[in-house]
Amino acid sequence: MVDGIYKEDNCSSRSEFIEKAIIFYVGYLSSNDNSQYLPNVVTSTLKSIVAESDNRMSRLIFKLAVELAMTMNIIASSQDIDKMTLTKLRGECVKEVKRLNGSFSFDDAYDWQKG
Q1: What is the pLDDT of residues 31-78, one digit of tens each?
Q2: At what angle do helices 34-78 and 14-30 cross, to 10 degrees?
Q3: Cβ contact 20:9 at 8 Å
Q4: For residue 76, what are the CA distances in angstroms to 3, 7, 19, 113?
Q5: How far apart are CA 1 and CA 3, in angstroms?
Q6: How far apart are CA 13 and CA 20, in angstroms?
Q7: Would 16 disulfide with which of 11, 24, 81, 100, CB 3.0-4.6 Å?
Q8: Which residues, in sequence order, are CB contacts of 100 under 8 Å at separation 6+?
Q9: Which of 115, 114, 113, 93 is nearest to 104 (CA)?
Q10: How far apart are CA 33 and CA 35, in angstroms?
């Protein structure tokens, strides 16, 4: 059983996994009031879940930033826009995105440009 699961618990060896299991079990048995012990387990589990979620989100945001940078470079290479127009556009975009609470779609951009 240990061979099949110790890596899933982020343990570097079987011994580390067994040590963690013994500490958990002894803490569980020696505690008259499990409410003092279990919150530590719950907190530890929640921290791990949040950390993993944070790592996934960071990777996704990085990938999105790369794709956005590629798109911006393609557009910049094919359009003749001066710095002053770009600065003004950035200010207008900040206002529009704030107005829409960060929810800005391609349809919004189309309507904004055409209307």
Answers
A1: 666 666 667 778 888 888 999 999 999 999 999 999 989 988 888 888
A2: 130
A3: yes
A4: 54, 47, 58, 18
A5: 6
A6: 11
A7: 11
A8: 108
A9: 93
A10: 5
